[in-house]
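thread: overnight batch results

M.L. [08:02]
morning all. the overnight job finished for the chain we discussed friday. pasting input first so we're all looking at the same thing
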Amino acid sequence: MSIFRGAGVAIVTPMKDNFDVDYEALEANINYQIENGTDCIVITGTTGESATLTEQEHVDVIRAAVNFTKHRIPVIAGTGSNSTRTAVELSKAAQEVGADAVLVVTPYYNKATQKGLVAHYTTIANAVQVPLVMYNVPSRTGCNILPATVAELTKNVENIVGIKDATGNMAQAAQMMNLCDGNLELYSGEDGQVLPLLSIGGIGVISVLSNIVPRQTHDMVMEYLEGDRRKAMQIQLDAVPLINALFSEVNPIPVKAAMEMLGMQAGPLRAPLSEMEDAHKEILRQELIRFGLMK
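M.L. [08:03]
and the structure it wrote out:
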């Protein structure tokens, strides 16, 4: 059984003006997501500024998300690190506070060979009982999980069940799905390429876009999976300019700016991230208006 089908939100971590985590805002945002059709909360990922959370904050935010979600939908916790030991500790902590699964990005900066990736993911998966979803985003990490490596891991490690694919490489994704032979839950990690990945066997998206348009993101996936591909295609294409604006600067700078424009609670960014440039912010504002989200 899949962890989820549909749209999982890579939810922001809202901050107070003093840069402490704003837990009241997090609860409000989680409730908004669930009320508008989101199928899974993905907490402490890149969009959640996990890189600038302390390890204690990391666990506290996961615990809070689990408590706020109240088992209404699954919670997947980002627990990746470029240290295998740290990833194990975070994954075990996430399991202990009630996360339904963990999302583990490839090691970054120090990278790893394919042999090293097999050892990394196997060690983490064997330390927990919850499902593990790999996260492949070479543009950020400089590290690419090759299709044969994914197939080896899903074949040999029982609780390695899925991958969030943000490679932008459809040929690689297709080869991966062929080698995994139906034994891999594929989630798009690119809001602009959801339907292409669904067309080769994907079952959902882990989405930045969903922070501001959860209903449309959910509908895009489910319309496709339920057979109305034309309607799904229209939602995908209509969202492209907004998606481009949401990635005009490094994530999560634009999505936090968009949430604030829409009266949602996101708050400031922790350094070294900085507030959005005025020119990009104006383009984002115009796309929010064009999409019918503000006047």
